[in-house]
Structures are given as structure tokens and as C-alpha cells.
Write a structure and sequence with these properties.
The protein is an alpha/beta fold. The protein has one domain: 3-Layer(aba) Sandwich (Rossmann fold). Helices cover 57% and strands 13% of the residues. The chain is built from 12 helices and 7 strands. It has a 7-stranded parallel beta sheet with strand order 3-2-1-4-5-6-7, with helices on both faces. The protein is globular. The relative contact order is 0.13. Bound molecules: NADP nicotinamide-adenine-dinucleotide phosphate. The site of NADP nicotinamide-adenine-dinucleotide phosphate has 31 residues, from helix 2, helix 5 and helix 7.
Length: 290
């Protein structure tokens, strides 16, 4: 719902060119925010621009882009305060731990961990002054680390920890910190994840190929299932909007039934049982690709 107070506030959404970020920018604009929508390409910005969506060139690994964003917020022509940072930008580089190069590990962390932290550090003084909010888009991968998802999950587990620490540090000063935990959402992430996985598979030795053949097949079937059965980005954006607009937001909002299930599961299932469940799931997924 649009209210006059919301119209006068700013929201930042990173990774707004596609998927959850794009849908969130559109949704928050409809909620009444003036949205600074982070994109890496001008053409993506042109596609999303509207009277309430202002594209900002933002690669979260680029210090100059982040400094320019801070300046843009400080110099808002209408003097609108910053209400929320939605840390959404992310990448997925999936391969077995043994196979993934250190450069790929660093790339995963540079975007999905250090990029998010850089934005938090740059904008926290402003958010403290406005008693704003930080929403970190994590993942079920930040609750359960499946085979082949080591780097992605490590980054998401890291953001779980960052979110918990940050919340305990700044909530007493009026800044809410919220984890958004999606299960499967139909976005480009599947496609780009499959492309990254195929590139890494090309670097495997024949022995590694044999070792991880079943896992690779299971991963492809699982990714296809994500794209087919995932909830829509608009559904995800509606959950994010709830977290942004709630008077007293919860510490975590899950997205989709699998989001809720995987968030809860590690609390009640032992490591060994979870290993067995995930192994059996991978076996049946791999069968689909035979
Ligand atoms: N889709 C799912 O099933 C799912 C599940 C759990 C969690 N998530 C999380 O949801 C978030 C959004 O993902 P999505 O599913 O909407 O995928 P997506 O459509 O691929 O969107 C990813 C966004 O991140 C941006 N991005 C990538 N590298 C960047 C960088 N260095 N700086 C700034 N932006 C960058 C991309 O921009 P470009 O277009 O320029 O590459 C794009 O806008 C991610 O954090 C992801 O881990 C997704």
C-alpha cells in the first residue's frame, strides 16, 4: 500500500537487472518507495527505469560505484531518507570442493559476501541515522550445504553469520537486519549456474569426471527442477516487501515451501540422516538424466 511517508523514502536494491532484484525494485516502487536500482549495464537500467525506479550503475565489487551510491543517497535532490538496503546481488558457481579453483571460490565470495559487506559498511552510518533496515538475501543453501554447492553455500552461510552479528550490533540503535531465505525461485540464476558448472566440469581430470558423474547429472536435473518448479520472482518480491514494510520485522522471512522446510530441517535432522536423505535425492535426480 502506498502511503505519503513511504513516497518520501529511498530503497536500494542491488542486482536489479533480473530475477528477484528486478521484481523487488518494481514491487517496492509500487509500495511507494523511490528505488535506487543497482544494475551493471546501462541497457538493463533503461529497461527498468520509471518515475520511481532510478537505475544506478553498481557492481558490488567496485569501490567507486559504492562511493558514488553513498554520495547519491547523501545528495538526494528531494532530501528523502534511506529506508532500506536490499542486498540481493549474487552469483552461483557450483562444483565439487575438490574441483573448484581458488579463483572461482574468490569470485563467489567477492560478489556474494564481500560485495554485500562493502555495501553494509558504506551505508550503515546513513541507516543508523534514519533507523533504516538491511535485508540480506541469503538462501536455503545458507542452511543446508548440499554436495556440489560448497562455494555457494559457504558464501550464504557466511552471510547468515554476518546478518546475525550485525543484527545483534545495531538493532539496539534502531536498525533492523533481516535474512531473506529463498528456496527455488525461477530466475536466470539456474542458467548462469549451469553455465558456470559446465565451464568447471571442462577442467576436471578423467578420474574426477568418473568420481562426480552421478553428482553432475543430479545437479543438472536439480537445476532444471528449480527453473520449472520454483516460485516466481514476483512471489519472492512480495515476501521482501512484507519484510520491508512490517512495523516490527522478523529476523528471517523464507520464500517458498522448500525455503521454509530447508530452514527448519537442520534443527531437527542429524547430519548423518541429512547426508542419507540428500544422497538418496541425488541418486533419483541422476536417474532422471540417464
Ligand atoms: N533463484 C533462486 O532459486 C535463489 C534461491 C536462493 C537464493 N537466491 C538468491 O537470490 C539473489 C538473486 O538471485 P536471482 O535468483 O534473482 O538470480 P539472477 O536473476 O541471476 O540475479 C542476480 C543479480 O545479481 C547481479 N549481479 C551479479 N554479479 C554482480 C555484481 N558483481 N555486482 C552487482 N550485481 C551483480 C546480476 O546482475 P547481471 O545481470 O549484471 O549479471 C543480477 O541482477 C541471489 O543472492 C541468489 O543467491 C536465489
Amino acid at each position: 500500500m502506498t502511503t505519503s511517508t513511504q513516497i518520501q523514502r529511498l530503497a536500494i536494491v542491488t542486482g536489479a537487472s533480473t530475477g528477484i532484484g528486478r521484481a523487488t525494485a518494481v514491487r517496492l516502487a509500487a509500495d511507494g518507495f523511490h528505488v535506487l536500482a543497482g544494475v551493471r549495464k546501462r541497457s538493463d537500467g533503461d529497461r527498468i527505469a520509471s518515475s520511481r525506479i532510478e537505475p544506478i550503475i553498481l557492481d558490488v565489487t567496485n569501490d567507486e560505484h559504492i562511493a558514488a551510491l553513498v554520495e547519491r543517497v547523501a545528495q538526494d535532490p528531494a532530501g528523502r531518507p534511506l529506508s532500506v538496503l536490499v542486498n540481493n546481488a549474487g552469483v552461483a558457481v557450483n562444483a565439487p570442493v575438490e574441483v573448484l579453483s581458488l579463483d572461482d571460490w574468490r569470485f563467489q565470495f567477492d560478489v556474494s559476501v564481500f560485495g554485500q559487506i562493502a555495501l553494509i559498511r558504506a551505508l550503515l552510518p546513513t541507516l543508523l541515522s534514519t533507523r533504516g533496515r538491511v535485508l540480506n538475501v541469503t538462501s536455503v543453501g545458507g542452511r543446508v550445504a548440499m554436495a556440489n554447492f560448497g562455494a555457494y553455500s559457504a558464501a550464504k552461510f557466511a552471510m547468515e553469520a554476518v546478518s546475525d552479528s550485525l543484527r545483534r550490533e545495531v538493532e539496539p540503535f534502531g536498525v533492523a537486519v533481516v535474512k531473506i531465505t529463498p528456496g527455488a525461485v525461477s530466475t536466470n540464476l539456474t542458467e548462469s549456474g549451469l553455465a558456470a558448472a559446465a565451464r568447471v566440469t571442462d577442467t576436471m581430470t578423467p578420474e574426477q569426471r568418473r568420481r562426480y558423474a552421478e553428482l553432475s547429472r543430479a545437479f543438472i536435473a536439480q537445476a532444471e527442477g528449480f527453473a520449472r518448479d520454483g516460485v516466481s520472482p514476483e512471489h519472492a518480491a512480495a515476501v521482501i516487501s512484507k519484510a520491508v514494510n512490517a512495523r516490527r520485522p522478523k529476523t528471517r522471512y523464507t520464500i517458498g515451501r522448500d525455503g521454509a522446510m530447508f530452514t527448519f530441517m537442520p534443527r531437527i535432522v542429524s547430519d548423518r540422516l541429512l547426508d542419507a536423505m540428500l544422497r538418496s535425492q541425488n541418486k533419483s535426480l541422476a536417474q532422471e538424466k540417464r
